[in-house]
Amino acid sequence: MFTSYGNSTMTKVFLMCLLLSAAALFFPFWVRIALLLTAGIAILFTLYFFRDPNRQLPDDLRIVLAPADGKILLVQPHVNKITGTSSTLVSIFMSPFNVHVNRIPLSGKVTHLQYCPGKFLMAFDPRSMESNEKMEIGIDNGEIEVFFNQVSGFLARRIVCSLHNGETVNSGSRFGMIKFGSRVDVILPSSASVQVQPGQITRAGETILARY
pTM for the full model? Predict the structure, then answer.
């Protein structure tokens, strides 16, 4: 299964590879082989990158799910104007080899949605949280409000987010992606008990980040 968020990119890659394969016919044998091999690898990687496997959501109630596949970079105290001075930041790093489709971490209403232009520092650089291009998202279910940011990186320069302010969303549903590697930062209020630690691998829509 492939995500529709990647349709435009996959089409461009396939067309470029088709042209490259056609051009290869006019080159000597070994050059032709190299060009065809390059086109084949590009197509396979593109299909692999835009894969979108189904996920089995936990049956638990009162949980916050991981919005992204990847590895926990850090879990640390954080100050946020909405969630308070005793908030916790959980940062998830996505390599180019992770599934990049993002999922809703908490059922509720979208209360905050803001695109912030910025730099393209390496996603594992702590400064990228404040300096990089990002999409800020807030969801409130009446009992807890969670904020999370899709943060672009050095390679990832295309944030896709299909959410709209005021809409009601369901935990685990797909809402977008960040193309070609980056990070997602989740800001949890003090009422949430964090269930993960640095170095842990996450799966969007399955891994429990916190309970409340």
Answer: 0.88
Active site residue 95: no
pLDDT at 169 over 60: yes
Q: How confident is the model at residue 182 (pLDDT cuts 50, 70, 90)?
A: confident
The total domain count for the chain is: 2
Catalytic residue among 95, 173, 182, 193: 182
Q: Is residue 93 part of a domain?
A: yes
pLDDT number for residue 198: 96
**In which domain, by residue range, is 177 found?**
63-211
Residues 6 or more apart whose CB falls under 8 angstroms from that of 61 comprise none
Looking at beta carbons, which pairs linking 122-131 to residues 24 or more positions away fall under 8 Å? 122/153, 122/154, 123/93, 123/94, 123/151, 123/152, 123/153, 123/154, 123/156, 123/181, 123/182, 123/183, 124/73, 124/93, 124/183, 126/74, 128/153, 128/183, 129/89, 129/91, 129/183, 129/185
